[in-house]
Structure prediction request, 465 residues.
Amino acid sequence: MTDLPPDTAPLRVSVWRGAKAGAFETFDVPMQESQTVLDLVAWIQQNADPTLAYRYACRVGMCGSCAMMVNGVPRWTCRTHVSKVMRGGTVQVAPLRNLPVIKDLAVDMDPFFDKWTEAGGAFFPTKSRADAVEPILPETPARQEADAAIECINCAVCYAACDVVSANPDYLGPAALNRAWSLVNDVKDGALDARLTAVSGAGGCHNCHSQQGCVAHCPNELNPTASIAGLKRATVRAALRGKS
Amino acid sequence: MLGVRLYMLQRLTALIMAPLVMGHIAVMIYAVQGGLSASEILGRTQGSLLWAVFYGTFAVAVALHAAIGLRTIIHETMGLGRSSLAVLTSALFVVLAGMGLYAVYAVTA
Amino acid sequence: MKSHRNHPLWFAFALHRASGLLLALFLPAHFWVLSYALNDAAALDGFLEWTDYTVVKIAEFGLVFLLAVHMFGGLRLMALEWLPWSPHQKTYAAGAVAASFCLSTLFFLSAV
Prediction:
């Protein structure tokens, strides 16, 4: 990063401090070229207040750790340029919505990953190492559905964007259901019926209202709404066959 | 809190009602011309098995559809539990279907 | 208005929910008025006379719009769920509103 001319006004960055109870604290952060929102948070922690808590790892949009609410919208902060989101020289950074705040910008991701497991997110192999490797044909419709859903980095941006999650605490959420859909389409997986039952409960796929906030905000441009629609069809077909 | 069965019922009643709503709107556009009167409406509907079946089906479908929809709204805004929701959904269905079928009987008998 | 909701398909959801709720609340009144036809056609006529007022005609226009937009919006949702995915979701949502507006305007023009 290069410094902008010294007369460039600093950015006013309000950052959430505290846990559930807390308040925004404002910091003046020097502006730099190609600065990301994560850069702002890191600058504050390194130069203004070392007690600021936040989470990140890869800084290149692969690990899914650094998602936060930026001006009220969930975003991956390492790939969000300040120039795209600042409003009149200010940026507001808050912890992800719909998850318990541990401290400052760090949320407890346990409910998110618990639901991922609850939705049948674990792969159940049908073969052992003694069997031959199963050929997977990329052009089959099921594989294309699985491929479309598989690029999720579990950043929980969709979970924070979803109003069904905030209204219905049992709702499994877009990421977990999207994962379930990728496994439903995986011919190597052997837990189809159990998974369809897992996504048909009180917090299952049928609670989705297709608001498509997940689609609008997913940084990897995935389509959890389409995945959830696929689960709705698959579970209805299973129910009509008498399997759930 | 919608499981697969209520989801199916909600979509099934919606599919049944889509053509009925179209018919209902067409009738309204036709009937409202020159003002509404009881004699005009009843002249069309009384003693008609066709209208009794049309609006009888509509009344039952809308009672189911509205009860399930209200259940979702009530759960998401008030966070009622599973058993209260079950009682509430059934009660809404019974009241709406009862009132609806009585109204259909009143205009077609 | 929370920023994460600021996209057209969230507004389509809000319209579907609001129209459904209002229609469900209107339904008992609608049934109750019609049931007067059984024993008291004069009372039914009394209610129907209200529909001569312009303000009631505007309210009826609103009801027809709510009914149409809930139906078209619902058909859009069922198409989304049951047909192959289409990238034109926003266009369909806008189309549902436009078609509902046309139908309810046609009703209003017939009523006045």
